[in-house]
């Protein structure tokens, strides 16, 4: 019998705990916790993400500073803003909403964000520290997946984990977190040979591909834990994951749904990282 990991419920629990902790922080230090969100241009999906992040901040008591810069913003204007936010004591975390317009160099802009304020966990310092298994800010989506394992007491040590996808924001940090938790990890990608066999060997299977119904029931081992990070539009236009949920679930011990699985955990971990940056600035 499988169990569905309810990301929405877990996210709500973590947010309510965070709200209490943030309120305590504010009364202990007589200070707000601030997150700066920088967006350039009018990408409609980014506008929705930014709105959701700001709303989530408000709900837990984090003060947000939103910077909506026009499409024609120059590299220098963007970088000047990031330098000033890097220095600003009111700002504990800085998030640059990606993608930036094509003419801007995201890599050089992101380098300006100090690693202590890098709440996305994308900086070379944070990625390097993660690979050394030392204290750092971890990319929000894979960190949210780790909280899901923790909430269900799913042990990872000695387990065979397969991650499909090797992006910097999901696949690679996910693999590193699983390795740090003593799983034996295989990372698959578009050039992987024998993907099905690799997946069939997985006790823990994480799909971060970006293709609807990519993981089918014949790729899943009996009793596996299946985590679906994908966010795709199915043929009917509805949000769906990378996993053929209806068929795969019968074979799993645990599975995450889409929507209501990993998705709600991502913004929650952004709030968590922002709180952590504030706490660390006091220690
Ligand atoms: P991405 O950068 O496009 O990476 C996709 C990965 O899948 C790549 O490593 C690619 O391999 C691999 N891949 C593509 N086709 C494959 C195939 N046929 N066989 C094996 N591997 C294949 O995507 P991403 O940013 O990691 O995101 C992945 C999915 O997660 C998307 O649906 C995205 O919307 C979703 N997502 C969800 C959240 C959330 O909060 N739930 C957050 C972030 C992303 P190559 O490297 O060889 O190209």
TL;DR of this structure?
With 283 residues, the protein is α/β, with parallel strands linked by helices. It has two domains: 30-116, 3-Layer(aba) Sandwich (Rossmann fold), CATH 3.40.50; 140-263, Rossmann fold, CATH 3.40.50.
The order of strands across the largest sheet is: 1-11-8-7-5-6
CATH superfamily label of the largest domain: NAD(P)-binding Rossmann-like Domain
The sequence of SSEs as H and E is EHEHEHEHHHEHEHEEEEHEH
CATH class of the largest domain reads Alpha Beta
What is the total domain count? 2
List key phrases describing it.
42% helix, 11 strands, 283 residues, 10 helices, three-stranded parallel sheet, Rossmann fold, binds NADP nicotinamide-adenine-dinucleotide phosphate, alpha/beta
Question: What is the strand and helix layout of this fold?
Answer:
Elements: E1 3-4, H1 7-29, E2 34-40, H2 44-60, E3 63-69, H3 75-87, E4 93-96, H4 106-110, H5 124-131, H6 140-151, E5 160-164, H7 171-180, E6 184-188, H8 195-200, E7 204-207, E8 224-228, E9 232-233, E10 239-240, H9 245-248, E11 252-255, H10 262-281
Parallel strand pairs: 1-11, 2-3, 2-4, 5-6, 5-7, 7-8, 8-11
Antiparallel strand pairs: 9-10
Bound molecules: NADP nicotinamide-adenine-dinucleotide phosphate.
NADP nicotinamide-adenine-dinucleotide phosphate (NAP) binds at residues 141, 164-167, 169-171, 188-192, 195, 208-210, 229-232, 262-263, 266.
């Amino acid at each position: 019998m499988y169990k569905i990991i309810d990301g929405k419920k877990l996210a709500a629990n973590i947010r309510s705990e965070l709200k209490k902790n943030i309120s305590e922080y504010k009364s202990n230090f007589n200070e707000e916790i601030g997150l700066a969100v920088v967006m350039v241009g009018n990408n409609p999906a980014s506008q929705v993400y930014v709105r959701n992040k700001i709303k989530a901040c408000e709900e837990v008591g984090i003060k947000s500073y939103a910077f909506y810069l026009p499409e024609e913003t120059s590299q220098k204007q963007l970088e000047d803003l990031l330098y000033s936010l890097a220095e600003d004591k009111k700002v504990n975390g800085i998030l640059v909403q990606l993608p930036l317009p094509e003419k801007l160099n995201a890599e050089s802009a992101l380098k300006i964000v100090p690693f202590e304020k890098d709440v996305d966990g994308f900086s070379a310092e944070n990625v390097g520290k993660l690979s050394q298994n030392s204290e750092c800010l971890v990319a929000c989506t894979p960190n949210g997946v780790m909280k899901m394992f923790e909430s269900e007491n799913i042990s990872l040590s000695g387990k065979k984990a397969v991650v499909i996808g090797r992006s910097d924001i999901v696949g690679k940090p996910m693999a590193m977190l699983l390795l740090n938790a003593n799983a034996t990890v295989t990372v698959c990608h578009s050039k992987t040979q024998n993907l099905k066999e690799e997946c069939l060997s997985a006790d823990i299977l994480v799909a971060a591909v970006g293709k609807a119904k990519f993981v089918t029931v014949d790729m899943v081992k009996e009793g596996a834990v299946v985590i679906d990070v994908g966010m795709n539009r199915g043929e009917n236009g509805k949000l769906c994951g990378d996993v053929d949920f209806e068929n795969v679930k019968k074979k799993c011990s645990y599975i995450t749904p889409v929507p209501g699985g990993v998705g709600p955990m991502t913004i929650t971990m952004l709030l968590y990282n922002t709180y952590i940056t504030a706490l660390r600035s006091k220690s």
